[in-house]
Amino acid sequence: MGRGGAKAPPRFVSPGVSDKIPEGNRSARERLARQREQEKGREKRRRTLIVASAVAGVLGLAAVVGLIAANVGEDGGEDTASGPAIAPSGASGEDALTLPVGAADAPSTLTIWEDFRCPVCAQFENALRDTVTELVNDGQVKVEYHLATIIDGNLGGSGSLRAANAAACAQDAGKFAPYHDVLFSNQPPEPDDAYGRNSRLIELAGKVQGLDTPEFRSCVEDGAHDSWVKKSDTAFREGGFQGTPTVLLNGESVFPAKDGEQISPAALKKWVLAANKGKKPGTAAPAAPSEGTATADGSAAPTPSDDGASAPAAPSSAAGS
């Protein structure tokens, strides 16, 4: 063709992927994506208000610390608490709310707040029991137990209260620690208020040699220490603690971690020995018997567990939703 011929047809550039989607559809999809992200964020924040992450892989602990104290109800479940708070035998500390185990002159103190319905308390107990037992037996640490009923307040029921009262009754008999171990070893699922039945608590007392006596049964069924348990729970709620278990070494929190290091048997031992450097182990007798079978002179002797192994010579505790 000549110079005055027709012009070449215009070139078309292939559209990009995003250009293939009509503007209206793309905007709708973007809005849906934003809504999903917002919903995920709200759900994550809701869960965070209920539980705090406490991942400790070496222990196999659940990724939960405990019920947040802010969610704790005013009541600890149905109970028979009335009248003055009657502390169990050997209780010490302010308002006699402490159940002590170990040499009174041990250089370090492990303070533990627990709820017998708390699943992470049970995991913590089972993971750290042997380590705490060793440290107590070596006079490196004494343990001060405190009882709370936060799950009764959050989920309803009375198992936390009833179990705590039964544990206080076991303290009267000099058998708090082995019964404490039995309660955590046989803990029902968190929503199951099996410990709200005194009959179940008495049944489990049969696993501790010499505990299932008329005196113990009467103490459990009468709720002899209910008011004391309620007073202990009030102290927990007013203490500013975040949940159960709360574990303090010489007043410093060590659960679920200390200085960025997750708690573990090795870590706990390291922390205690570092705190005790240059100090002599405790040698004084425990404030009150708390293990094994009471002997004729009132001291405590180890007893076999159900599988024939010796029961720990010290508390099982050390190891919320």
Describe the model.
The protein is α+β, with helices and mostly antiparallel strands and 321 residues long. Helices cover 37% and strands 10% of the residues. The protein has helices spanning 23-50, 119-137, 150-155, 159-172, 176-185, 198-205, 214-222, 226-238, 265-275, and strands at 99-101, 108-114, 141-147, 246-249, 252-253, 257-258, 261-262, 293-294, 300-301. The strands form three sheets. It has a five-stranded mixed β-sheet with strand order 1-3-2-4-5. Strands 6-7 form a two-stranded antiparallel ribbon. Strands 8-9 form a two-stranded antiparallel sheet. A hairpin with a 2-residue loop joins strand 6 and strand 7. The N and C termini lie far apart (85 Å).
Helix and strand topology:
Blueprint: H1 23-50, E1 99-101, E2 108-114, H2 119-137, E3 141-147, H3 150-155, H4 159-172, H5 176-185, H6 198-205, H7 214-222, H8 226-238, E4 246-249, E5 252-253, E6 257-258, E7 261-262, H9 265-275, E8 293-294, E9 300-301
Helix pairs in contact: 2-9, 4-5, 4-8
